[in-house]
Design goal:
Number of helices: 15
Radius of gyration: 21 Å
Distance between the termini: 13 Å
Strand order of the largest sheet: 8-9-7-6-5-4-3-2-10
CATH class of the largest domain: Alpha Beta
CATH topology of the largest domain: TIM Barrel
Strand content: 15-25%
Mean pLDDT: 91
Length: 389
């Protein structure tokens, strides 16, 4: 992979409308499992927002005021922003980008930080989708995670969001929390759908990086569910959620048909997106880059940021690496045709030899030109997709 400075990027790398992601790094408290770029230093608020607005100006001009069809504010906790701050960001985005094609605007929110007035104000600003970090509806489990909300607050946030006019309400549901049982996960999923959620994102607790919860587990104070128990939960959810009306469309995501996250879909479909804010990732054409994760350095413009251009092999490998995450799978014959044009057919032949045992073992299935992971394959997707990384 060739590395160059971000100045090598230009509007020629842009094809079609952009997805625009803004990372809001502020949180009221840090969850025990979190390794994201976040802070509780509210004194940085003005500087962070000023930098975000400068970056909106810079990139809007650089790319020729491109069209944006999905807007996503993530974090961190975007719902800690005041309506005034939220309005300033939206106004700057509208001024520097063309939001005429906008088809979806998403806000991430912590249930413990929203109220009816804030939700109505966010809806009035054009946000039509909200993603609530619920994680669980068991207060003991939420305590293990260091969440600032309780189960009743989570359900109240869903109700308030619906009353504020949000018709696309998503909730995160975490699997693998210390003390979590299968029947409780299924009960939580049923309760969230009954409360008004039209989308659920199922996340496996990840303790690969240093965090307080990892330290508690390693010290023996808390025990994680076994791999078999976690697998049982995922398999049960693959049956339960469709029965509740939420169809799977990606390894970790289920939605009422038509309620899928358009912004997140663009990641797996390899459509262009621009990420602004500390730790935010971007994809324009063959270019990939990530902003500095060091918040003070990012604010001051000192963070290291390199833009990497994928070579032909890496670009081809991204097609199955990302596409097989989707339940519709990928057109393998189209992939072979692309590889032929690029003189990379031996690479695809090699993948097919590696995939053959997985097809025979029921982890993959082939239907005409389409190759997709089976339900069992979804459970083992990390290992399967590693061959393309």
């Amino acid at each position: 992979m060739s590395s160059q400075g971000p100045d090598a990027l230009d509007r020629e790398a842009l094809s079609g409308p952009l997805g625009l992601y803004l990372h809001i790094p502020f949180c009221k408290d840090r969850c025990t499992y979190c390794s994201f770029t976040t802070t509780r230093d509210w004194a940085l608020m003005d500087a962070v927002l000023e930098r975000l607005q400068r970056d909106l100006d810079t990139w809007g001009e650089r790319l020729g005021r491109p069209g944006v069809d999905t807007l996503y504010l993530g974090g961190g906790t975007p719902s800690v922003l005041s309506l005034e701050h939220l309005s300033q960001l939206v106004a700057r985005a509208r001024r520097t980008f063309d939001l005429g094609p906008l088809a979806e605007a998403t806000l991430e929110a912590n249930p413990g930080t929203v109220d009816p007035a804030w939700l109505r104000g966010a809806r009035d600003l054009g946000f039509d989708r909200i993603s609530l970090g619920v994680q669980a509806l068991d207060d003991t489990l939420l305590g293990h995670l260091g969440r600032i909300h309780g189960s009743q607050e989570a359900l109240e946030a869903i109700r308030m969001a619906g009353e504020a006019g949000f018709r696309r309400i998503s909730a995160d549901l975490m699997v693998g929390i210390p003390g979590q049982k299968l029947d409780r996960v299924l009960a939580d999923a049923r309760t969230l759908v009954a409360a008004g959620c039209t989308h659920l994102s199922i996340y496996l607790l990840d303790l690969d990086k240093a965090c307080p919860l990892k330290a508690q587990v390693e010290a023996g104070r808390l025990s994680l569910p076994s791999e078999d128990e976690v697998a049982d939960v995922f398999e049960a959810l693959q049956v339960e959620l469709p029965a509740l009306g939420l169809a799977p469309y990606e390894i970790s995501n289920y939605a009422v048909p038509g309620q899928e996250s358009r912004h997140n879909n663009r990641y797996w479909e390899r459509r262009p997106y621009l990420g602004l804010g500390p730790g935010a990732a971007s994809h324009l054409g063959a270019w990939r880059w990530t902003e500095s994760h060091v918040l003070p350095a990012w604010v001051e413009g000192r963070g290291v940021r390199e833009a990497d251009e994928l070579d032909a092999t890496e670009d081809l490998a991204e097609i199955p690496l990302l596409g097989l995450r989707r339940h519709v799978g990928i057109d393998w014959e189209a992939l072979r045709a692309t590889a032929t044009v690029r003189n990379l057919l031996p690479l695809v032949d090699g993948w097919e030899r590696q995939l053959a045992p997985l097809l025979k073992g029921g982890l993959l299935e082939r239907e005409g030109p389409v190759l997709r992971l089976t339900s069992r394959g979804m459970l083992l997707s990390n290992g399967i997709l590693q061959m393309f990384a």
